[in-house]
Amino acid sequence: MMRFFKIVGILLIGLLGILIFNVVRYTPVENAPLKPMTLVQPDAKALANQLSEAITFQTISWESGNPDDYASFIAFQQWLESAYPNVFAQLELTRINTHTLLFRWQGAEGTGQPVLFSAHYDVVPVNPGTENEWSHSPFAGDIADGYVWGRGALDDKSAVVGLMASLSGLLKTGFTPEQDIYVALTHDEELGSEDGAVALTQWFRDQNITPAWSLDEGSFVLDGIVPGVDKGIASINVAEKGYLTLKLTAHGEGGHSSMPPQNTAVTILAEALVKLKDAPLPGGLEGISEKMYGDIARNMEFSKRLLFANLWLFRPLLSSVLDDTKSGNAMMRTTTAPTMLSGSVKSNVLPAAATATINFRLHPRDTVQDVVDWVTAAIDDERIDIEVGEFTEASPVAATDNAGFAQLVQTTRAVYPDTIITPGLTIAATDSRFYGDITNAYRFNPMVINNDDLEGFHGTNERISIENLVRATQFYTALMQQQ
Questions:
Q1: Which terminus of the chain has fewer CB atoms gathered within 10 Å of its CB, N or C?
Q2: Which of 142, 155, 189, 295 is catalytic?
């Protein structure tokens, strides 16, 4: 017996030694030498005024259509031309479906692949009933307390202003890129991008132009959003989740509610929803998620580094812990979200049919058909009809071992020196899901956001700091100078 415990003790000491050895080596990856970059010093007041004016144009994407027949969009385009006259005068402009603007800055050499920068200038409506909750009127473009306030400040007119200011500033210096630079300002991202990014992508195909990479909105430099990390995290997202809506319809015996059968359409549907809740699609810490969390964990305290440095042992534990958080669950799997229910038209009438709408955000490992098959097997009930609604497959995963990604990393380091930089996954939908069909599509806004800022996305009190406008302009300018 003593020999047994001695052997167990030796094994435990050996295991502990392996764990500690791995965590000692698990340190931040050494960065490549930073290339010399001289960052521009744009006029902060001018940038703030430009965004302030941009916000006053109510370029709202309404689900029911555009009530002013795009008058506000046309006015915004006219304002752009007055604010950045040299961009319109010196660059070639193509209008895609009238309201998406595509600028081409012709390179001096012109033999290599061009690059594509993109941002959208349409915005979502203000949620009805929340108007009085805004500290500043949502379309006033107020400048106060070091911020520009209003709908579109974060999503995504700040990027529009940063890109246009960068183009204008570089043109004034006489700079000419080696290769072509395209800048797209799209107008219907909040509605699905059919007339904007979809048509724009087709335009590139028709012209036989294949960009080396594209850069659009996605993630930001995250400040204080990830617990246990005291540095900013710049997540340069290399893919985004797909989108799928399924409609479940349960059939039952209709009639008066005073004599209900044992199973009604509503109870059949409820059982199906519970089955789906109890059978989430498979997930796990792998691929993009593993890379992102791993890069972050290298900068954490010893105990957390110990876990990530020894995934061969702790992967199930970490996956379980991350599963219990909304963000972790969304990063690791295709999510299932029941969003709409309907049944009887009257409280005392049994419906002959009850329906539920389920929204799925597809992880790159899953296809639409995978999800449909999984749902069908999980419910396993012939009384339920499954109808496929709107869908978009998850995007391709952009490369991280090419010159384009290296330039993004280098430029981020120049603007945000003490920042963790990692590839990541966008869990919402952007124009880049279409750009990814023709190029390496990257998703990153070079601006810092914190937990307070998150409430502004499609919510109330949307704002962006003036410092962020300066940093974004520095980033875009420096990246353009490398082309």
A1: N
A2: 189
